[in-house]
Amino acid sequence: MTTKEKNLLDLAKLYLPGGSNGNNITMDIIIDRGLGSKVWDTNGNEYLDYSLGSGPMLLGHSHPEVVDAVSSQISKGTTYFGLNKHMIDLAEEIISAVPCAESVRFANSGSEATFFAMRAARAFTQKEKILKFEGGFHGMSDYALMSMMPNQLQDFPSPTPDCEGIPESIRNSVLVAPFNNTEITKQIIENQHNEIGAIIVEPIQRVIPPKLEFLKSLRKLATKYKIPLIFDEIVTGFRLDYGGAQTYYGITPDICTLGKALSGGFPIAAITGKKEIMEYFSIQNKSEKELVLQEGTMNGNPLSSIAALTTLKILKQKNTYANLKKNGTQLINSIKQKLIELEISAQVIGEFCFFDIIFQKEPIIDYRSMQNRNKNKTKQLNKLLLSKGIYKNHSKYYLSTAHSEKEIEKTIDAIQLSFQKI
Ligand SMILES: Cc1ncc(COP(=O)(O)O)c(C=O)c1O
Asked: Residues near ligand 1 with C-beta < 6 Å?
């Protein structure tokens, strides 16, 4: 570490709570720039980036077409607090791509999008409770932080707040079920459907793939009791497939939230879904009593909108997802092979475009079945990988379309060497 970097890190400790802005991959590195599949720190060290800004940079950093599009907009103004052409074109593209999308509202982050999706569903049903899944991540709202990462496991469906500052009353507004468990989820819905205003689920919970039957049963129960089913596709949208997890699994929710891969690295997220629910956002169509307020200074700004629109144009090109799948499958299969060769008690879970290595032998189907994993080994592996120039989130590898086959081979070598050290 150079003196310059050390000084900057000291200043971070002085000016930012805990020396960070909350997004902590490592507290020892300050990222200076990114290009394609790589990032560089302020010391000039190069890393292959498997964090992708925690997901948005599916095309890699500073994709030239996105940079050009954004540059051409900057001199025309960056935000107007009104309609702009790019926002309308983007909404049109989302509607043509995503099965549940009939109209679209924009926000700036995934946390906002999930929050507004839940609010719209509550207004639509006139019912207050949200059913979510233990370990499911939906951002930072009070509702989302119920049983997102609980230390103390409650009996289902009682929720537990994951952090300080959440009003006690929120406990009464959230129900919690185990992911992938149709039986318990069904019981909860059947017992409390009169109070449930929305079911929110990550189609892949963190990196845990869904049992198809589970997603199908959610769809069935939601339809039976007229409860809006929200797919939180902030991670999966435009990543698993151009049409997201709903296209990949062939199950259409009533509402979904989109962000990350949609954004091209700019702050934008979307709430989209069936018109009859989305209409609650409309000043024209609802009386004041029925209106769901959803506005924000920067919502749908032309800069983020053109970045997203250009990103979608590139993602839509032929073979994008086939190539990503080929590379991701090669990476995952090679890691699995190394685990077998080295007789390491671990598994790779997730999908071709995002996954993690979990040091546990027993199958993982939900939050509870992951509790015995060896977290120290994950920490050790992440640290070793960082020292070998592989930059990743604590608990996820994100693959971009910019990672080359050669870089994937380099990654496999780094993983093998790190495995040997563990
Ligand atoms: C599934 C899911 N929903 C919501 C969010 C929140 O998104 P943001 O960080 O943009 O607020 C995230 C962020 O990682 C996420 O993974």
From this structure: 54, 109-111, 114, 137-139, 202, 232, 234-235, 259, 269
Classified by CATH at the fold level, domain 77-315 comes out as Aspartate Aminotransferase; domain 2 (3.40.640)
Atom of ligand 1 nearest to the CA of 110: 7
d(CA 15, CA 149): 28
Of 372, 288, 312, 248, the closest CA to residue 104 belongs to 312
Reference 217, options 169, 267, 250, 183; nearest CA is: 183
Q: 3-63+318-421, which class in CATH?
A: alpha beta
SS3 state of residue 29: coil
pTM exceeding the 0.85 threshold for the entire prediction? yes
The CA–CA distances, whole Å, from 105 to 121, 173, 237, 281 equal 14, 24, 15, 8
**pLDDT score of 305 more than 80:** yes
State phi, psi for 340 to the nearest 5 degrees.
-70, -50
Q: How many whole angstroms separate alpha carbon 250 and alpha carbon 229?
A: 14
- Per-residue 3-state assignment (H helix, E strand, C coil) for 126-187: CCCEEEEECCCCCCCCCCCCECCCCCCCCCCCCCCECCCCCCHHHHHHEEEECCCCHHHHHH
pLDDT at 25: 78
* Spacing, Cα 58 to ligand 1 middle (Å): 15
Instruction: Calculate mean pLDDT across residues 201-217.
Output: 98
Beta-bridge mates of residue 348: 357
Give 176's strand partners.
132
Q: Give residue limits of the domains in the chain.
A: 3-63+318-421, 77-315
Question: Which pLDDT score, from 0 to 100, does residue 100 have?
Answer: 99
| The token pair that represents 113 in the structure block | 């999008």
pLDDT in tens, 8-50: 999 999 999 999 988 877 778 999 999 999 999 999 999 999 9
